[in-house]
Amino acid sequence: MKSFFEVHIWPQRGRLYRLGYLWVRDRSLAEDMLQNVFEKSFVREDELRSHPNLMGWLVSSLKNEVLTHFRQTKKLDSLDGLEELKVEESISEDTKDSIQQVMNLVKGLPLRQQEIFHLREVEGLSYEEITEHLDISLDQVKVNLHRARKSIRERMLNQKLTK
Amino acid sequence: MLFAFIIKAQAQDDAIQRFFSKYMDDDRFSRVYISPKMMQMAGGFLKSNAGTDKDSQDLGVLIQKVKGIRILSSDEVNGLTFYKEAMGTLSKNKYEDLMIVEDKGSSLKFMVREEGGLVKELMMISGEEGDFTLLSMLGSFTYEDLNLLAEKTDIPGMEMYGKGSKGPKGEKGPKGIK
Amino acid sequence: MNQRIDELLEKYWEAESSLAEEQELKTLLLSAEGYADEKALFLGLSDFSNEEPSLQMPTKIIPIKSRNWMNWAASAAILIGSVWGWRVYEQKQAEQEAYMEVMQAFALIQTNLSKGQEQMTIMNDMKYLNTTNQLFGNPTNK
Question: Which superkingdom heads the taxonomic lineage of this protein's source (chain C) (predicted)?
């Protein structure tokens, strides 16, 4: 008989990893962060069984893990720190070109917009699912997705002009 | 030895301590003692497993402020008799009533002992036929800290602990002090 | 076909497209001429979605040795994965048990406090009276 973890949490590893990668831009760091969250959730399996929003919990645990890590290594103070960090960080070299291009397009956008854009475009989630993952309202999802796409469109046009 | 342990820097009401000790060897009662060390460990567990929600954080703050908890209970006695006895042993001027619920055949009272504007002890005494509970929680709280327990906050995992069990019979309570 | 693509693209940029329409857009673009930038974007996103982590599933079963007065089933405890050593595991166990005891005590308090909230008799000063459902308000300074 499979455990709760095996059935409900383990299958989310791809999605969580990719979101983690969006935040940290480093394959092995993203994997480490996720591994930590999985270990924690494994221990807390019983409690998580009755959690009203498991995905939301997994996402925010992962983000917390990342923030804690950066606080220790980079001296970040606030939740906004992750955004600032992203602008400085360069993408690790083992990433595919096509992915790098996309990352460059979203770089510098507010973190919330990046996350929502990512969950929609890369993970193919519905608005409803996105509200659960990020624990935000439907309106916030719509507004931010619109803004993100708008900004990306502009950037694409600008890139065209400079070619 | 557990009940001879005097928690440092806390003014312990001797009467209540005597009450706990008096029934130490009485098999009708079960005792729980959660020491400062155990509170620390509980805090450690919460820290490494907590979510990021406010409730978990508030819980962590509360746990840090609790120095110890003692529970004495029985489901074999006439609780009302013991309720009266316990009330009788308390130094009235040290404790203030916080809440009283009385209906036919059962009494429940919460009291606090304040010092320097902070609550140093939360005491709960409840009694009815076939049930008696005496609980003392020591620490240094504000009323806001205690809010977490007052409202039905959704502390992750709290629903697992249900009505809160009160301990085995005839035992000295869990080992808490090293 | 290009007309349909343009139609869908407009909707897309305005964030008014459904998931089905977005899927249609991507499919049409695959066999369309031109639209180099849009193709590059969706290709990158698609490649991203294929990235998978190499993780190991944590291999253990915890349940905890039961303290007598808690109703958790006693079972043998097994080592947790390859990451933790036995001593750390014992420490974690002890912490978890302490936590459970504390939560049990808190639950006992909470249950009884809510009994009171149903039919309350509050003695004492006004400072303990509440205007909302909060039992504990801001105490006045003594």
Answer: Bacteria
Answer for the pair A107, A87: CB distance below 8 angstroms, yes or no.
Answer: yes
User: What is the span of the domain harbouring residue C14?
Assistant: 2-49
* Mutate which: C57, C92, C95, vs A, most A CBs within 10 A: C57
What's the rounded Cα separation, in Å, for the pair A1 and A21?
Answer: 32
Distance from CA of A68 to the nearest CA of B (A): 11
Closest Cα of chain C to B126: distance in Å? Answer: 9
- On whether the CB atoms of residues B131 and C115 are closer than 8 A, the answer is no
- Supply the CATH number for residue A23's domain: 1.10.1740
| Shortest Cα distance, chain B CAs vs residue A26, angstroms | 23
Q: Between C92, C107, C119, which is nearest B164 by CB?
A: C107
pLDDT one-digit tens code per residue, A49-65: 888 899 999 999 999 99
Q: Report the alpha-carbon distance of residue A44 to residue A52 in Å, rounded.
A: 14
Helix (H) or strand (E) holding A131: helix A127-134
Residue A5, token pair as written in the block:
């973890």
Q: Residue B63 and residue C102: Cβ atoms within 8 Å?
A: yes
Q: What is the pLDDT of residues B56-88, one digit of tens each?
A: 888 888 999 999 999 988 988 888 888 888 888
Separation of alpha carbons A62 and A69, rounded Å: 11
Domain ranges of chain B: 14-161
The verdict on A3 and A22 lying in the same domain is yes
Cβ neighbours for A111, distance < 8 A, ≥ 6 positions apart: A80, A82, A83, A86
Q: Report the distance separating Cα B91 and Cα B16, nearest Å.
A: 9
Q: How far apart are CA C42 and CA C9, in angstroms?
A: 12
Residues C107, C60 within the same domain = yes
